[in-house]
Amino acid sequence: MHVTVTGATGLVGSRLVQRLLARGDQVTVLSRDAERARQALGAVEAHAWDPTAGPPPAVAIEGRDAIVNLAGETVNQRWSDEAKARIRDSRVETTRQLVAAIAAIDDPSARPGTLVNGSASGYYGDTGEAEVREDQPPASDDFLAEMAAAWEAQAHTAAGLGLRVAIVRTGLVLAAHGGALPVIAKPLRSGLGGWIGNGRQYVPWIHLDDEVGLQLAALDHPTFEGPVNAAAPEAVTNKAFTKAIGRVIHRPVLVPAPAFALRAALGERAQLVTDSSRMVPGRAAELGYVFAHPRLDEALEDLLG
Ligand code: NDP
């Protein structure tokens, strides 16, 4: 299979590219900095693309079997109005440009057959203790939810061009290097930090291997369409999650970090850690996907042990 990947230089995309190359697939990468992408990713064809300037070059899209679209500016920054606009556009407008490039290919047989698009657990908003499956509607009045819904809606427009569109709604991706886990573990290693607020909010965690495993399963499946929740089967609260990290790094976790202090420090962005999402991988079975790391303790041992 020949796959074009956006966001390929990121935490998830770079592991996806490794896995595609390891199984003998060909990879084309679209990056704002093609040279850096080539250096970081090795045996890939890399093309420069500034999504704010228009659609990607046809040479990176035409004749490919599939596209995996993961590009997006980090949400882990201060949410000024300008930053929110950039965060949103880097997903929604980027996807619009990508679909425009596919539409511009005159010969339908030269269009990619599949689009696997990113999305996030933020789609559902703060859903308390209820299990959340893929048929749950998006939250309203919530920046992350509105953005995820708009991102998915753009991706779905590719279905009108004949593509099979699968959406991977991702929870908190846990990796040994990069992403949230090292940032959460660092203060705990120094005996600082703790669970957040009352710790009862659910954390929709997933091991990086399973995040990429689900993306590959969505790529490979001949008919799967629509969303799949990318969260491990074992649902845990923030308190259980934090204590599990403490166990693996052999540090007791005894005190909470007050939610009001986080809200004061982070503003609206605090919802990233205070919202509850008991997202379960309801449709992963339809993909025939078997989790490599279904249990939190084992996943953390693998990543931090
Ligand atoms: P990263 O932040 O590690 O990488 C995202 C990539 O997107 C970058 O490598 C970059 O590629 C590209 N990018 C960054 N800013 C912009 C911009 N302003 N415009 C266009 N492209 C940009 O993300 P992850 O790998 O962690 O996540 C991949 C996707 O999955 C993201 O869209 C994210 O929202 C989603 N996700 C991730 C979660 C996680 O826990 N990691 C949780 C939920 C969803 P380049 O510089 O090569 O152009």
Automatic annotation (TrEMBL):
Gene3D superfamilies referenced in this protein's UniProt entry, alphabetically: NAD(P)-binding Rossmann-like Domain
Protein name listed in UniProt: Cell division inhibitor
Keywords: Cell cycle, Cell division
InterPro entries noted in UniProt: DUF1731, Epimerase_deHydtase, NAD(P)-bd_dom_sf, SDR39U1
Annotated ranges, domain NAD-dependent epimerase/dehydratase: 3-223
Top-level taxon of the source organism: Bacteria
Domain DUF1731: 257-303
Gene Ontology biological-process entries: cell division
A Pfam entry, by short name: DUF1731
Stated family: Belongs to the NAD(P)-dependent epimerase/dehydratase family. SDR39U1 subfamily.
